[in-house]
Write a sequence for this structure.
């Protein structure tokens, strides 16, 4: 599966590679960024490399896709976005993260619009879901702004922090 390069008004969406290691580390070494996801705070570039390797494996196994969100005016990677799960002709699960320095500037809204549109057109998806940990109000707002609908809550167990946590599910149908 080839990862298409995409663009929006202010950003390009590109394949992730080692050239972005420092930017990935910068993103995930901020406690605010990892607060509502299942990554531990990055402590070194090895953590960033492990994340890139995981994204690459999911892509190679054709079960997920991840783009880097790259500013057109500086070529700086400021976040990632993609499908944590992808079932072509069926559904996908959306995931995204953004460097804390770029929060509240509309970048994720712009990125979601671009990736969702691409998913419906290129992969013939019928629906796209997103899971948001309860308390992550900003993420819920950006999904609603992109026409996702609340679809219920659930409690899940994960190895992350050895705890149960609740998530709100959102869905956007074609």
């Amino acid at each position: 599966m080839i990862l298409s390069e995409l663009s929006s008004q202010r950003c390009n969406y590109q394949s992730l590679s080692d050239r972005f290691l420092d930017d990935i580390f910068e993103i995930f070494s901020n406690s605010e960024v990892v607060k509502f996801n299942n990554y531990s705070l990055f402590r070194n570039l090895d953590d960033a490399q492990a994340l890139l390797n995981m994204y690459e494996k999911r892509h190679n196994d054709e079960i997920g896709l991840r783009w880097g969100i790259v500013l057109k005016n500086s070529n700086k990677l400021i976040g990632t976005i993609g499908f944590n799960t992808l079932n072509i002709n069926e559904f996908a699960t959306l995931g995204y993260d953004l460097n804390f320095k770029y929060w509240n500037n509309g970048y994720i809204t712009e990125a979601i619009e671009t990736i969702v549109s691409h998913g419906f057109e290129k992969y013939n998806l019928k629906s796209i879901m997103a899971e948001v940990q309860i308390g992550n109000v900003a993420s819920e707002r950006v999904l609603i702004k992109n026409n996702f609908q609340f679809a219920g809550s659930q409690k899940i167990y994960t190895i992350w922090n050895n705890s149960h946590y609740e998530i709100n599910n959102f869905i956007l149908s074609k």
User: Anything to note?
Assistant: The CA atoms of residues 1 and 80 lie 18 Å apart. The radius of gyration is 15 Å.
